[in-house]
Amino acid sequence: MKFDIKKIVRPNIETLKAYSSAKDEYTGEANVLLDANENSLGSPLTKWYNRYPDPYQKKVKEKLAFIKQIKAEQIFLGNGSDECIDILFRTFCEPGKDNIIICPPTYPMYEVGANINNIAIKSAPLLPNFQLNVAHIEQLVDAQTKIIWICSPNNPTGNSLDRIDIETILNHFNGLVVVDEAYINFSKQKSFAQSLIDYPNLVVLQTLSKAWGLAGLRLGMCFADASIIKYMNKVKAPYNINIVTQELALTALEEVGQVNDMIQHLVDMRIALAEVIASMPHVEEVYPSDTNFLLVKIPKATQLYHYLLTRGIVVRDRSSLENCSDSLRITIGTEQENTQLVDAMANWIDLTFSNG
Ligand SMILES: Cc1ncc(COP(=O)(O)O)c(C=O)c1O
User: Fold this and answer.
1) What is the CA 240 to chain-centroid distance, rounded?
2) Centre of ligand 1 from the C-alpha of residue 219, in Å
């Protein structure tokens, strides 16, 4: 059966007459702008903040299209990739009727998004080696399955998922396959953004929040066939990316070299930190990571988590997640922060295990 986006989109979104903003209706270069009820006198800040932003972020998309070697029409921008996740649910999943498949342990927002939108969740946990259980996923698919959510490299396990497995799912599933690549820049894996031409049902998520160091700007990217992006544009709020974010993103996107240097530095520190932590007594496992964090298994992990807090160090206790008992997720910090972490961990291990 051939993939047909018209069979996936919610019928009310297919027929929706989307809001048409003032900036949609007039896109020329007039001098007298009396069409959007903005404050024509200006603002307490730089003058142009009195104007609404470009609703379709044309300049940012053109720059991204060049960097990613795709077309601007294949890009949707969200207020963080979390907004892209939400828009995907609201565009393609019918509340109370459709279902999605997730592969835990994974990024929790897929589950939260499904729950907010009253979409049933089917779960195909990752195998003990944190790879996809493709056979289980195939078993779970039914006529109402709209999206399979795949996170690669995966949060919180840190590993990249087998590309052949993802391709198998893309080839066999007639709904959308979302590949969340929030951490792809820290990995040697090839991005699926370059495979859009091969898979009409592929949706790739990336973000400026991780490798680009711009979590505070809130800019998430969604790459997919133009027909998918068109529907998402109908659903989004008209001005979802503010002027400041668009301007600063454009400036930052000129700095690919600087970002690549940061990525290399973070990866070097990740490798060094993994080695040091793995050599500490009682540490059971430091899982291989293709990200800017490490998942560390250690007895009494929750106790260690609380101890680190007393030393002013916050990590993420992931012990309650499937297959993650006694596991902490630790973001790679600066050299100094990593040293502080290691010292505190060593201290705690001494205090906790030395008296038998
Ligand atoms: C896998 C994954 N996807 C998406 C996000 C959200 O990114 P953004 O800051 O772009 O909303 C995160 C944030 O931690 C993440 O780990």
Assistant:
1) 17
2) 10
Query: In 173-319, which residue ranges form alpha helices assigned H by DSSP?
Result: 226-235, 243-252, 256-278, 301-310
Residue 182 to residue 273: CA distance in whole angstroms = 21
Strand 99-102 relative to strand 145-151, pairing = parallel
Return the ligand 1 atom nearest residue 79 CA.
Answer: 11
Q: pLDDT tens digits, residue range 81-118?
A: 999 999 999 999 999 999 999 999 999 999 999 999 99
Strands 220-224 and 202-207: antiparallel
- Hey, do 5-254 and 257-353 end up sharing a CATH topology, with the first three levels equal? no
The whole-number average pLDDT for the span 268-295 is 98
Rounded CA separation 131/165 (Å): 9
CATH architecture of the domain formed by 5-254: 3-Layer(aba) Sandwich (3.40)
Query: 82 CA to middle of ligand 1, Å?
Result: 6
3-state SS assignment for residue 332: coil
CB 341 within 8 A of CB 330: yes
Query: Which of 250, 187, 182 shows the shortest CA–CA distance to 217?
Result: 250
- Closest atom, ligand 1, to C-alpha of 220: 10
Per-residue pLDDT tens over the stretch 142-158: 999 999 999 999 999 99
Domain definitions of the chain by residue range: 5-254, 257-353
Q: Report which residue type is found at 145.
A: T
What 3-state DSSP class applies to 11? helix
pTM of the model: 0.97
CATH superfamily of 257-353: Aspartate Aminotransferase, domain 1 (3.90.1150.10)
